[in-house]
Amino acid sequence: MDLGFETIGxxxxxxxxxxxxxxxxPWLIGDAYFGSWRLSHAVPQEQQDHVKACKxxxxxxxxxxxLSLPSLEMLKGKKILVPNHVGGRIEHDLRGLGFDVTVMKCxxxxxxxxxxxxxxxxxxxxxAVLMLDLDGHLxxxxxxxxxxxxxxxxxxxxxxxxxRTVLSCLTGYGDADMLNFFDEQGVRIQPEAMKKEPCGPGIxxxxxxxxxxxxxPSSSMHRYNRTDSGWADACATPVDAHSDxxxxxxxxxxPPFIRxxxxxxxxxxxxxxxxxxxxxxxxAFGDDWSTPLEKEDVDKLRAYFTKFAHLHTVLGFVNLRVGxxxxxxxxxxxxxxxxxxETPRQSLMQAVEWQAFDxxxxxxxCKTTMHGDWWGKVGNDALYPHFGPFVTKFGDNGGxxxxxQLRAYFAEYLDRGYTDFADDVRxxxxxxxxxxxxxxxxxxx
Length: 445
Prior knowledge:
This protein has helices at 45-53, 69-73, 89-96, 150-157, 200-210, 295-306, 345-353, 357-363, 388-397, 403-416, 425-434, and strands spanning 3-8, 12-17, 20-24, 37-39, 56-58, 79-83, 100-104, 109-113, 116-122, 128-134, 137-143, 165-170, 181-182, 214-218, 222-224, 252-253, 258-261, 266-269, 317-322, 325-330, 338-342, 367-371. The chain is built from 11 helices and 22 strands. 23% of the residues lie in helices and 24% in strands. By secondary structure, the protein is an alpha/beta fold. It folds into 3 domains: 3-269, Ribonuclease Z/Hydroxyacylglutathione hydrolase-like (Metallo-beta-lactamase, Chain A, 4-Layer Sandwich), CATH 3.60.15.10; 284-397, no CATH class; 403-437, no CATH class.
């Protein structure tokens, strides 16, 4: 291909300028989230070869369906570009593994080839958007990042692009999140994703809002892989469902796996084979639900959960139910709220050791029960904004656990000028939760 891009895998875009030159988030082989996710479709050898031919790779964030170490091991020698996340965890971890890593400053264009330049926007949620300028055509890889200020840079640059425009980002029923919630009677709370609301109207609204021509599905092309998480396949978005209810007029919703020629505006479907193999037991990934915690495990878990200062302002306790036995960790008993996580020992302790608790949650084999009044929230909204972001985003990945660290963390993002809180309920809840840590004058709205 002379000038264009391919979409393949879960969130991989392969940019072509007289051949492949850049690939994003290459999850080509292997599983993710302690074996709980697999790719919905195999990555054909042709596209694997195209990724291997690229000189540069870009990694948006640290989730294993975007930063796949088994895939990166096949790609040693590439120049890996990463967003300028506060804390620099991905940069340091990959350099420690021997990779050639370059950090991209927010909002600065980086030349990849004669007709491709890219700009990266890191956000406070430890995710990032990538803008690709392919000879005046604009491709926006927003993967899981949401807006969170990315539109500020888009508004700044949008008038410079008069050719084809493409948005690629996470949509779907909403299963790329923690869904496995139970009430205190042990009954699973019906996930919102089970409603299977059509994706098309929301996609059309995004294209209209940002004035974009094409939508390319991204970041929802996975299936569940373990017998203890296979229940969540009922929530997964089929790859052909993104266009359901899409009435785009002059705008188009593209199929999920394509070669797109930017000269002509024509595309060809790739049609990779589906990964329809049977589910595997958790033991295949080292997890045994009957294995209990050891005393030193409980000490490590207590040190882990009590280090997050924000939890002391909202949470009474965390209970770990492992091997059929409860282990309650007091956080601040002035609060009646609590959480029970019922999960296997090995993946739990690895997640804590690796500071990757998100991997336990998103794997959807861990069973979560909320105790007390969580502001009237139930299901996957209950952990947001006071638990999930502070533990997994700002803490594990951003290295900010104390109030002082959190204030410095957000001061850096605000100083860059690309942080924003939208008017929707979730963003306003996040802004309110962050109020003690936002610098004076820094509460963008």
